[in-house]
Amino acid sequence: MRSALVALVLLLLAARFFHERVEPKAEVPVVRAAECRWARSPIKLDGVINEAAWEKAQEMKDFAVFWQNRKARTATSARLLWDDAHLYFMADMEDQDLYADVKERNGMTWTNDVFELFFKPHTDRRHYYEFQVNALNTPLELYFPSRGAGGFQRFAPVSQLGMESAVSLRGTLNDHRDLDKGWTVEGRIPWKAFEAAGGKPKPGDKWRFALCRYDYSVTLENPELSSTAPLTQLNFHQYEDYGVLTFVGNQ
To answer: How far apart are CA 113 and CA 136, in angstroms?
Structure first.
């Protein structure tokens, strides 16, 4: 009887140890909903976030590694705006080792320090969009009819969506021997880019979205991938987990 009781106690202690080690309880913020507000004044694409319009945009800074249940090691702050002509975006990123060498438009920019945007205008259809800008200001823009249609290899050569961007660096690109501070990207996407999904939204429309980032650095053991969306697996294309973006009109 005593041996059975000892065995039960040991089993309970082991279960508690396993639970605490495998399923740590971390306070990770989740961006499940956000607003894309109206740009009330002009935005100059220069990578310098000094326009009055950005001050009214909702700040999204809760980037996390949700599939590991932890916050990102490098901070990111992003905002979205829109008007009759464009969807605007900006991101300000902490980065101690600026790295980017992909110069070809629609190249493999995710192998560099990169900011990414994913948009799925309709939950009842398969199509969605991916946009990227690396620290060299090289763009990647992709329209996917579906996740199973062929991916980057098939659609990168034929996706020309008209995104424009500008980047400013706070440090030295591609020199791992010094300590950098970060980089900023500012960009716009014309509504014609979303023609296959119905084009410009109306005030009150809701899209699924995720803002994501790759950070490569000699200060990190592995590249840091983070997102605003509560992704349940390491897959930025897991749009079932995306947040909801509501377009707020010019009121």
So the answer is: 9
Nearest to 127 by CA among 99, 154, 148, 106: 148
Averaged pLDDT, 18-35? 57
Closest CA to 211 of 17, 98, 101, 80: 80
192-206 pLDDT per residue, tens: 999 999 999 999 999
Whole-number Cα distances in Å, 38 to 81, 85, 197, 211: 6, 11, 20, 19
Q: What is the pLDDT of residues 56-98, one digit of tens each?
A: 999 999 999 999 999 999 999 999 999 999 999 999 999 999 9
CA distances from 212 to 15, 225, 232 (A): 35, 7, 14
> Is residue 190 packed enough to be buried (19+ CB in 10 Å), middle (13-18) or exposed (0-12)?
middle
Cα of 42 vs its chain's centroid, Å: 24
Helices (H), the chain: 2-22, 52-55, 151-155
Residue type, 26: A
